[in-house]
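for ur thesis appendix - Ketose-bisphosphate aldolase, class-II. copy paste whatever u need, i formatted it the way the template wanted (i think)
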Amino acid sequence: MKVPVIIGTSEGEREFIDVHDAVALVRDLREKHGQEIFLNADHTRSLEKVKEAVEAGYDAILFDGGTLPIKENIQKTKEVVAYVKSVSASRRTDILVEGELGNIGSGSTIRKELPKGVAIKPEDLTTSEDAARFVKETGVDLLAPAVGNIHGMFANAPEPALDIDRIAAIKKALRQVQGKPIPLVLHGGSGNTDEDFLKAINAGISIIHISTELRAAWRKGMEETLKEKPDEVAPYKLMAGSIDEMKKIVYNRLKLFNKLN
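the 3d part is after this line
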């Protein structure tokens, strides 16, 4: 399936893998498969961590100031944009900066209830006015709004419904401010219905994150393999089931997300 793919690494994953190793791996995969693969430094919360990823060769940065008051979020995001764009100019290449506006929680966990402070009530979600102000003042290339989405998945209930009308309103407001479309990013996509995904894409979402689904698939595959082969100790043999489960998720999601194209 020849469609663009974004691989995101969290701050924790970058500490485990190392930013230079992640860049080298993605570069090798691009050359080997002729595939459009972009490496994103996901949910980066400090300029120091932004610099680590940029200097290593990441293609995009999400600076996450979503839990901050909007004024402080704008100020810190502007600093990140200024730094990244200066590096982009010196390298004559494009490094994209994504900003986050609104609290959608954090962490890939199976939840029993909403995390404290997470925006779900309509009055707490990102408004089109705030989105337009944020993009205009920061100069970000992409925006991740709070539109009913949260990180993680619920154990015994469907995800809260996405606010499709809000997505469309934000998309329209950003076009009016910038004179060009600004891609909207849906974080915390895991657990949403296929119907909501397609509606969100049709309303203006360009990128969807599904980390928790993939991690849950990894664990499912590992648990099943351990049951089938309780005496196995070779890591590559134990991981085969996890990889197969993750492949199924990736294939089905890429197929769904590109259904409207």
